[in-house]
């Protein structure tokens, strides 16, 4: 099975998508060992496996079977979580029931609508995206977000990208670490300006997505159909290379986020720093493409 020319994330004459999955999904795990189906052979590094495959020591059918087995093993804890954990079962039931519903659409445009969630009446909204989680909360990040919120007009919204952070593996990629980072970040904001934060609406990306998962993921998929890999590369922060599939997913998820927040009838301003500037530009290009009013982007770099 050969991938199409434009689908490979890295330059590779072989162009086999199975190798991309093995490299970026499986070997991205620390200490991972790949087990070859039907034998006792194991591989500790991707390069070792790739060399044997290219030299003809691993048939393509065996590579596919091994990949299927390994991905299933990777997903099994997630499957158990959604069948054994009561809270997870409830969330899954909500998502499943939403997909089964047949609702009359007022528009052919598929997007997650947060119009009923966003507060502030008909006032314009100013959206600030919180920074990606890391090992520790930087004072400079807290101060920058505070300054953007203070300078914002209308109804202020702070967007926490918890699902995108997990997809990128930020702060280790665990639910607890990502949530812990944002809770500490919010504590820092409230400690430094409680009065301001009382006026800010805080939205968690994951919770928002689950409120309308079908429309959200449809908007993300539609964005992916329209975006080239070159457009994704341009959307990354300056100086960052496109190395993983997670970067592609998170970039088009960002467009889905902006559609949910700024795709309604209210005037919207995206207040950001350098990290989100190119991602906001990607969203703006998509807004123009589908005929929506483009939200204003205000990018500021703090001294």
From TrEMBL:
Catalysis: reaction(s): tRNA(Tyr) + L-tyrosine + ATP = L-tyrosyl-tRNA(Tyr) + AMP + diphosphate + H(+)
UniProt EC number: 6.1.1.1
Biological processes annotated in GO: tyrosyl-tRNA aminoacylation
Superkingdom, natural source: Eukaryota
GO molecular function: tyrosine-tRNA ligase activity
Annotated InterPro entries: Rossmann-like_a/b/a_fold, Tyr-tRNA_synthase
GO cellular component: cytoplasm
PANTHER family in the record: TYROSINE--TRNA LIGASE, CYTOPLASMIC (PTHR46264:SF4), TYROSINE-TRNA LIGASE (PTHR46264)
Name of the protein this chain belongs to: tyrosine--tRNA ligase
């Amino acid at each position: 099975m050969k991938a199409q020319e434009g689908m490979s994330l890295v330059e590779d004459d072989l162009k086999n998508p199975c190798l991309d999955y093995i490299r970026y999904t499986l070997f991205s795990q620390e200490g991972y060992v790949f087990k070859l189906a039907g034998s006792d052979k194991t591989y500790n590094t991707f390069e070792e496996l790739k060399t044997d495959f290219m030299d003809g020591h691993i048939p393509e059918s065996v590579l596919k079977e091994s990949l299927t087995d390994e991905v299933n093993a990777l997903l099994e804890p997630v499957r158990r979580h959604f069948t054994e954990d009561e809270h997870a079962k409830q969330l899954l039931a909500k998502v499943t029931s939403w997909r089964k519903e047949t609702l009359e659409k007022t528009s052919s445009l598929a997007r997650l609508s947060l119009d009923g969630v966003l507060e502030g009446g008909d006032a314009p909204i100013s959206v600030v995206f919180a920074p990606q989680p890391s090992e520790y909360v930087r004072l400079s990040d807290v101060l920058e977000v505070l300054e953007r919120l203070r300078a914002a007009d209308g109804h202020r919204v702070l967007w926490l990208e918890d699902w995108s952070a997990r997809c990128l593996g930020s702060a280790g990629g665990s639910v607890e670490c990502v949530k812990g980072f944002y809770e500490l970040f919010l504590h820092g904001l409230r400690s430094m300006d409680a009065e301001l934060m009382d006026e800010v609406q805080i939205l968690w990306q994951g919770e928002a997505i689950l409120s309308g998962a079908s429309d959200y993921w449809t908007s993300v998929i539609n964005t992916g159909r329209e975006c080239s890999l070159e457009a994704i590369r341009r959307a990354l922060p300056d100086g960052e290379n496109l190395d993983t599939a997670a970067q592609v997913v998170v970039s088009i998820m960002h467009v889905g986020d902006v559609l949910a927040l700024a795709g309604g009838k209210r005037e919207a301003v995206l207040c950001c720093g350098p990290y989100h500037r190119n991602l906001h530009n990607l969203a703006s290009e998509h807004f123009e493409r589908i005929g929506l009013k483009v939200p204003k982007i205000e990018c500021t770099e703090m001294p």
